[in-house]
Specification:
Number of strands: 17
Helix content: 10-25%
Order of helices and strands: EEEEEHEEEEHEHEEEHEHEEEHH
Largest sheet: 6 strands, antiparallel
Length: 384
């Protein structure tokens, strides 16, 4: 399955309806389409999507919303999804509406509309349930125009959630029946929960080429598993071998960039193989700019990424915007009495304008700290 669009209304953190598109909204030039995944007809998917904004703008929340939707579409009970904290603040009687548009390998484009409510006012006992749900589906052969390929207004739903469904828990989506029938689903690696913890999240064999790319001073780095026992062998060039039995001790010997890089690039290999999704919050943490740029370029290289895997990341670094030739795979996030995410193609109509300069100059508005806040901070530092 491939995610095409998410539309969310009613989230307490977002005062406006939130829309995230995963397909190319702008025209795709023939000489540029090798950086994208061709789905069908003239529909292409962006292989890398950047979420950028200043501190406390809501970047992490946007990633959590995407992860929540994909968890729900992967049959997870909404009360068990790690990122269901996005629903906090929903009042009893209120509702949140998720519209999820996706492509399935059975040759259909689909829309799932899910309405979620809360069961109790007591915060300690509150649970969420799916109150109403409908699924629409249409064959890609019937789609004639890109402008309307996500339009289902004149179609009847192919599946509707029944009240008091006997064989379905109230916090599980009806998509479970669709996924079972077509053996569908998303392969997702969500690394956002590791943002504040730089630990080796994977144990096993790592390609020598990856280790050499991250740290050329390492001669070899091997991890062998025997049940619960871990045997780690690490050797730097012109140094004696280190033998460890606790992965937590690696922080003494490996740089934070090497540790994060192993996890990120190994997960990237997994999603390349399965055409899945890799979510990373604050991608630039512990990395130099060239390593980050390399990862982005790999996702946009159809030879490295033939199955259309997608990198979704947040960043503070405006310079990373210049890695993209297009504007429609960049979202500018602001928090002005509510989180909003605006596609850069709606603001910058031309692709030849240097994106980082437009961002840092505050031409896009709300992308740099307010000048008054800067002056007040300067005065406090001068007075102290």
């Amino acid at each position: 399955m491939k995610l095409l669009k998410i539309r969310v209304a009613g989230l307490p953190l977002c005062t406006e309806t939130l829309e995230i598109d995963f397909f190319a909204k702008q025209r795709v030039e023939a000489e540029k389409n090798e950086t994208m995944h061709h789905l069908f007809a003239n529909i292409y998917l962006n292989n890398a999507i950047a979420v950028i904004g200043i501190n406390a703008s809501g970047k992490t929340t946007i990633l959590k919303i995407i992860s929540f939707v994909m968890g729900m579409l992967n049959n997870k009970p909404i009360n068990s999804i790690d990122t269901n904290e996005i629903l906090e603040g929903v009042q009893t009687g209120g509702e949140v509406t998720f519209e999820s548009f996706f492509y399935c390998e059975n040759g259909t484009v689909n829309k799932l509309k899910t309405i979620i409510k809360k069961t109790a006012e007591n915060r300690n006992d509150e649970k969420y349930f799916i109150d109403n749900e409908e699924l629409w589906s249409k064959n890609i052969d019937t789609i004639k125009k890109k402008k309307t390929f996500l339009d289902f207004d004149n179609l009847a739903p192919v599946m509707t959630r029944k009240k008091d469904e006997e064989f379905l828990m109230d916090d599980v989506s009806i998509i479970i029946a669709f996924n079972k029938k077509y053996e569908a689903g998303f392969f997702l690696c969500d690394m956002s929960k590791l943002t504040d913890f730089n630990v080796l999240s994977l144990l096993g064999e790592f390609p020598e080429e990856l280790i050499a790319f991250l740290d050329p001073s390492i001669e070899y780095f091997r991890i062998n598993m025997d049940g619960n026992d871990v045997d780690i062998r690490l050797k730097f060039k012109d140094s004696a071998e280190f033998a460890l039995n606790n992965p937590g001790m690696l922080n003494r010997y490996l740089s934070s960039g090497t540790i994060k890089g192993i996890g990120v690039f190994m997960n990237a290999m997994f999603v390349f193989e399965r055409g899945g999704y890799l979510i990373i919050d604050e991608l630039e943490n512990h990395f130099n700019k060239e390593i980050v740029a390399t990862l982005i370029r790999f996702f946009m290289d159809c030879k490295v990424n033939p199955n259309g895997a997608v990198l979704i990341f947040s960043t503070h670094y405006a310079e990373l915007m210049d890695e993209f030739d297009r504007n429609d795979n960049i979202y500018i996030v602001r928090n002005r009495n509510g989180i909003t995410a605006e596609n850069l193609s709606n603001i910058l109509k031309r692709n030849d304008i240097k994106k980082s300069e437009a961002y840092q100059s505050d031409f896009l508005q709300g992308t740099v700290p307010a000048y008054d806040a800067y002056v007040n901070l300067k005065n406090v530092l001068m007075d102290s």
